[in-house]
Amino acid sequence: HTITRPPPTPSPLRFSKFFQANLRILVTGGAGFIGSHLVDRLMENEKHEVIVVDNYFTGSKDNLKRWIGHPRFELIRHDVTETLLVEVDQIYHLACPASPIFYKYNPVKTIKTNVIGTLNMLGLAKRVGARILLTSTSEVYGDPLEHPQNEEYWGNVNPIGVRSCYDEGKRVAETLMFDYHRQHGIEIRIARIFNTYGPRMNIDDGRVVSNFIAQALRGEHLTVQAPGTQTRSFCYVSNMVDGLIRLMEGDHTGPINIGNPGEFTMMELAETVKELIDPTVQVKIVENTPDDPRQRKPDITKAKELLGWEPKVTLREGLPLMEEDFRQRLVVPKSQNN
Ligand code: NAD
Ligand code: UDP
Ligand code: UDP
Predict the structure, then answer these.
(1) CA separation for the pair 51, 57 (Å, rounded)
(2) N or C: which end of the chain has fewer CB within 10 A?
């Protein structure tokens, strides 16, 4: 029954509403790793009210403990695959497990979160006239045949593999965003996030940086998945949050890659972590999982030109900040192994 109509020109009222100081901002997945850092940054602006919805699958209230009880903050236990009724000006839609071990744990649920969850947030955006930002992923490029990846590349994704619930889920989420934009005039923003690391990652999250740091602190072998020559490019979380906010506040729908172009093999990463935390730990080559992308590095020309954004923190600067956080949580004082 839906009639196709051209996107409306933003009314002066809508436009001024966006720039007026007091915004009510919804962050889905705000109890997670990137979400909680984003909430910190949004809450630091005293004019904003922030509402977080999260089902705590991979996130925790602990990540938000400094804001619980704050008059400008609300935390709602809610699953985005269900209808949500709130009145907001902006939606940062992050809800979705990001670590392969968690998104593969219940793949059907991952697909539902990406597809039905994004549909619901778009329905909400349509009803209240909110601008919505989706945190998509470099995984939409799959095992890329172009290197580095720019936003024009359509990707090389296995539609029926064990990672597809996440990769294809995010691809459909991007499609939904653009269809709501074209069909209903919704203001959308799409960030394609590349591997991000920093304090508050789950210790047993399964992602490579958190694994290596936890393993080094526990004096365990660093598990490099074969062959170890595969590459990733790691962005420090504070830089990521800065990029997401710039994208939301700017004039471009995206998709825009947000990531750090500094590219490392997993073997190089292991050696760097070893050198930093404990040169005596050993590297062990273990079996890899199916469809692991062999290389990944963002082309961030668009982010630089359109958002005036580029990452500042290098891997060697960011890893010690994460180490400090992991030492506190694992209760390993500095003197013990360094
Ligand atoms: P995370 O797992 O720490 O956070 C995801 C949050 O979403 C968690 O708090 C989780 O409980 C919540 N969640 C999951 N399913 C939900 C549901 N159905 N309803 C409500 N809440 C739900 O992951 P993260 O690293 O903070 O990633 C945040 C977003 O960024 C995700 O959308 C992810 O796909 C995207 N992303 C992250 C990376 C990265 O390297 N961290 C890379 C690319 C894309
Ligand atoms: N939706 C929501 N909150 C709202 C408005 C809509 O969660 O405030 C959900 C709604 O349940 C629906 C989805 O968003 O499943 C898409 O909504 P839309 O209005 O675009 O489509 P329709 O309801 O016509 O299928
Ligand atoms: N990896 C590894 N050891 C680990 C975990 C992951 O060598 O303990 C490798 C994995 O094979 C992949 C890369 O690190 O090539 C990044 O994996 P991660 O799960 O962090 O994120 P992805 O980019 O695959 O989503």
Answers:
(1) 18
(2) N
Q: What string of DSSP letters covers 204-242?
A: T---HHHHHHHHHHHTPPEEEETTS--EEE-EEHHHHHH
Per-residue confidence (pLDDT) for residue 223, from 0 to 100: 97
Pairwise CA distance, residues 193 & 146, whole Å:
17
Judge whether 124 and 91 are in contact, CB under 8 Å. yes
Cα dist from 305 to 58, 297, 312, whole Å: 34, 18, 16
CB 19 within 8 A of CB 78: no
Cβ(118) – ligand 1 distance below 6 Å: no
Provide the strand spans (E) within 3-140: 24-28, 49-54, 73-77, 90-93, 131-137
Q: Which residue has the tokens 């236990």?
A: 77
Distance 22 CA to ligand 1 centre (A): 26
Alpha carbon of residue 3 to chain centroid: 33
pLDDT higher than threshold 80 for residue 58: yes
Residue 166 annotated as catalytic = yes
CA of 126 relative to ligand 2 center, distance in Å: 8
The CA R_g of the chain, rounded to the nearest whole Å, is 20
pLDDT at 107 over 70: yes
